[in-house]
Amino acid sequence: MSLKHLGLIGAATMLASATFAQDYLPILQYHHVSASTPRSTSLSPEEFKEHMDYLAEANFNVVDLAKALDDIRNGVALPDKAVAITFDDAYRNIYQNGFPILKEHGFPFTVFINTQPIEQKNRSFLTWDQIKEMTQSGGVFANHTVSHPYMARMEEGESHGQWKARMEKEVADVEAALEEHLGTSPKMLAYPYGESNQEIRTLLTDQGIVGFGQQSGVVSKDSNFADLPRFPAAGNYAKLSTLKTKLNSMPMPLEKVEAGGDFAGEMPVSLTLSFKDGQYRLKDLACYVSGQGKAALNWLDDTTVVAAAEKPFGVGRGRINCTMPNRAGSQYYWFSNVWIRAGEDQRYVSQKN
């Protein structure tokens, strides 16, 4: 075979590798693995096994979260069908019911722990010995604050400075505990209840800590690494049929997003999406408002659309989820934005961030 032919084969191999290299990451979010805990944040051990068995049978590559995020930021390709597994809170049923299944498959995973119940030896939460055992089989443990507070809220009578000092301590004490008990911290934090504000996100960024919310979506190099998305996979989202769609999702090809800040008010929210140059099925874009159904779409030009809610959100968290099929119709682009509608007595630090 000639050198020319060898060169062509090598180029084709490189092209194929580039074609199948993945530069984005869907992340699954779990809490309880139990049939006796609140359904909204739980799935049964049988359901969890079904999820993990499917990942194995469908040849997904379950990756270490921290390394995968570093690779994405540095332009290093992930394996095809890469996915990461996370848990919020340090529930003991993760060790009892989830860990044996993960260990059987050899899947790495990350648990975001709140340390107060661990230090108090609460029987419903992990012990440090269990945590250390799990680290020997692919477990990574990261920050979920000490006491699991609403991080963007002040306590009654608290000044802004006191609130900020309290949040700094909530973060720093867990980092110190991870270093003390495990010898290292992956520098990742999941916001309790998925809530943060710009000050909190800046606090994390200044310390080199990656932040995670609870909005749906897929991580790419264009994501906000102070507020990364994850797909909830428990409760109403535990069905394998819907999970398959999320696992097959890609990041929405957005140039710019305008959401008007973290907080919703008395008027309906809207979301302005500007798409990158490319061939997309923009006419098939669909956005859904939590509790309201489809959002109204108003195209400002060929690549910019405003997705608007019909009614104001009630107190709490509300979102707009947008999806769009790719050109082949085989995968969906996915994006979600969350707003907080503050109650009068909830003392959020700022409703204008």
TrEMBL record:
- What is the annotated signal peptide range for this record? 1-21
Q: Keywords in UniProt for this one?
A: Hydrolase, Signal
**InterPro entries cross-referenced by the UniProt entry:** Glyco_hydro/deAcase_b/a-brl, NODB_dom, Polysacch_Deacetylase
Q: Which residue range or ranges hold the NodB homology domain?
A: 81-283
Q: Which Pfam families does this one have?
A: Polysacc_deac_1
What Enzyme Commission number does this protein have? 3.-.-.-
Q: Which Gene Ontology molecular function entries are recorded, alphabetically?
A: hydrolase activity
SUPFAM superfamilies assigned: Glycoside hydrolase/deacetylase
Identify the CDD domains for this entry. CE4_DAC_u4_5s
What subcellular compartments does it reside in? Secreted
Q: Supply the PANTHER family for this chain.
A: POLY-BETA-1,6-N-ACETYL-D-GLUCOSAMINE N-DEACETYLASE, PTHR34216
Q: What is this protein called?
A: Polysaccharide deacetylase family protein
